[in-house]
Amino acid sequence: MVDKVEKKMPLTKITEVELVYRNKLKSTERPTVKSPDDAYRLFLETWDADKIELQEQFRVMLLDRKMVAWAFPPLQQAAFRVAWLILK
Fold first, then answer.
1. What is the rounded average pLDDT of the residues 61-68?
2. Which pLDDT value is given to residue 70?
3. What are the phi and psi torsion angles at 47 (to 5°)?
4. 3-45 pLDDT tens trace
5. Predicted local confidence at residue 28, as pLDDT
6. What is the dihedral of CA 36, 24, 20, 65, to 10 degrees?
7. pLDDT the model gives residue 79
8. Which of 72, 45, 71, 39 is nearest to 58 (CA)?
9. Domain ranges (residues) in the chain
10. Could you give the CA distance from residue 84 to residue 75 in angstroms, rounded to a whole number?
11. How do 57-59 and 69-71 pair as beta strands?
């Protein structure tokens, strides 16, 4: 049965997956980080206020060279109070 499947579908024809990022905001509309207080305020805006004291999260802020914020992706989210992050 395996031989029949290989004959019908060549292994060289496989589907590609592409990850594309498109920002809907213009660069002039994105927030700029000029101080640690600006970064703190931006992080607070991205967190769910109902979960901030309940669930531990580890996030990063992606900035360009002009300190313009691009994204705030969560890297780790805990089930309860502790988020473990293992850097390799």
1. 90
2. 84
3. -85, 150
4. 555 566 666 667 777 777 777 888 788 999 999 999 999 988 8
5. 85
6. -30
7. 63
8. 72
9. 26-77
10. 10
11. unpaired
For the chain, the residue count is 88
Looking from the CA of 41 toward its CB, the CA atoms found within 13 Å total 8
Distance CA(72)–CA(33), nearest Å, equals 13
The SS3 of residue 69 is strand
Kindly give, in sequence order, each residue whose CB lies less than 8 Å from that of residue 61, ignoring residues fewer than 6 positions away.
33, 39, 42, 43, 69, 71, 72
Answer for the pair 62, 76: CB distance below 8 angstroms, yes or no. Answer: no
Say what the pTM is.
Answer: 0.57
Cβ atoms of 42 and 61 closer than 8 Å: yes
Residues paired with residue 69 on neighbouring β-strands, in sequence order: 63
